[in-house]
User: What shape does this take?
Amino acid sequence: MMHPDILTAVAQTRIDDHARRRAARPASWRYGDAAPPAPDTRERPAESTEPAAETERVPAGQR
Assistant: This one.
């Protein structure tokens, strides 16, 4: 019979190999339709440096 330490080492190697192969798969294989969204690489318009326009406040009874 094999020594328990050898069996543990073989089992851990198999677990590590499986995890490595699983991590190398595309996200669509791992998550199916629930794949995490790709990072947004679209350009965003520059933010305006003008102050926001203030709106006139109307008392609650006059709305």
In short: The chain has a mean pLDDT of 75.
